[in-house]
Structures are given as C-alpha cells and as structure tokens.
Amino acid sequence: MTNLVVIPAGIAIGILTSAPVGPVNIICIGRAFRYGFVPAWLAGIGAAIGDGVLALVAVFGIGVIADAITNHTGLIQSVGATILIIFGLYVMMSTPHGSPRAEAHMADSGMRIIPATFLITITNPGALLGFFAIFGGIIGNRLLPEGDWTSAILMVVSVAGGALLWWTGIAGFVARIRHLISDQTLRRINIVSGFLLAAIGVAILVKVALRHFGLI
C-alpha cells in the first residue's frame, strides 16, 4: 500500500536541497531581477528536473548511472564548471531590463536556460551523494519499503515538485520587487552574479586539477 507521507516528505526534501545558495539560486535570482518571473521560473524548471533525475537515481539505486557518476566525478565536475564559467561571463555582459536588447535576450534565451540549469544540477556529484545520504541513511525503508515502486515514484515526483515550489517562490518574490531596482543597480547585479558563477566554476576546476595531481 502506498505510503502517502512520502508526498510531503518529498516536497520538503526538494525544498531543502534547493534552498542552499548555489549557482542555480544565483542564476534564478539574477534572471528575476533582470527579466521578471517567467525567465527566472524557467531556470528553476531545469534545476527541478535535474533534482528529479538525481532523486530517481538515488531512490531506485540505478547502479550503472550511480557508478558512472562516482567513477567520473572529475570529468563531470569539469563539464559543470565550464558551463558555469561560460554562463557567468555571459551574465556579466548581459543588459539589464528596460532596453530592447534585454527584451530580445529574454525571448531568445528563455527555453535555453532549462537545459543549462539542468546540466549544472546533474553535473554536481555532491548533490547525488546528498540524495543517497537522505534516502539511504535518513529515510531508509521506513517511507520507501523495498518493492513499493508506487511510493518510490511518488517520492521522486514530490522531490521535483518541492524543488519547483522553491524556485517559483524565489522567482515570484524577486520579480515583485524588481521594479524598485534601477537599471544601474541591475547592471551591478549582473556583474556580481556573473562573477560569482564564473568564480565557482574556476574554483571547481582548480579543485579537480589539484585532486588529479594528488595535491589534495
């Protein structure tokens, strides 16, 4: 029998795993300031789908995928870091809202942001390990008895739903106050958020390189 407690539990997990400030939070908040609710919400959709995929791997223990991520952590992190650097530089050069160029950018990049934030999410091996810890060590068989596939699927969907709920709230809140921010301030936000994204990417690449050479 399906344990319906997995639904609020999954929603809570989705919110808690999305809440820590990281690259996608910076992207979502920045897009909400620059372009409004929908472009920021689309960024959250990509991250929510990514969280759903990671939860799927963790819940069902898909060995091949889990092993591939574990065995190729450096490569996966390098790909994610490169995406962050490129995206960060792009954000630094982007135009704040209130200009035709900005509106054109919003329309052009609206759907492309979904695969971008999806890739950023799933190329974080730490996120997968976090989900393994949550489902394996904290929840265990109490909410997800072995063989209860319905509960497992509900958990995965609920995690993705909780993540999307977080991104919807963040995008909505920032979009409501964006009119109070001048274009000059938004330009500074572009520069700071883009720099942070690129810096995170560089830091990841440095860490991967140091690990590769056995220095850490």
Characterization of this structure:
- The structure is a single chain.
- With 216 residues, the chain is mostly helical.
- The protein has one domain.
- It is 82% helix and 0% strand.
- It has ten helices and no strands.
- It has helices spanning 6-18, 23-35, 37-60, 63-71, 73-93, 100-109, 113-122, 125-143, 149-177, 183-212.
- The longest helix is centred in the last third of the chain and has 30 residues, at 183-212.
- The N and C termini lie far apart (48 Å).
Task: Briefly summarize what is shown.
The chain has 216 residues and is mainly α. It contains ten helices and no strands.
Globally, the shape reads flat
Secondary structure: number of strands = 0
Mean pLDDT: 80
Q: What is the makeup of the main sheet?
A: none
| Broad structural category | mainly alpha
Specify the number of helices. 10
**Which bin fits the share of residues in helices?**
over 70%
> What string, H for helix and E for strand, traces the elements in order?
HHHHHHHHHH
Roughly what fraction of the amino acids lie in strands?
under 5%
Q: Any low-confidence stretches, pLDDT <50, length ≥5?
A: 98-104
Number of domains: 1
What is the strand and helix layout of this fold?
Blueprint: H1 6-18, H2 23-35, H3 37-60, H4 63-71, H5 73-93, H6 100-109, H7 113-122, H8 125-143, H9 149-177, H10 183-212
Helix pairs in contact: 1-9, 2-3, 2-9, 2-10, 3-7, 3-8, 3-9, 5-7, 5-10
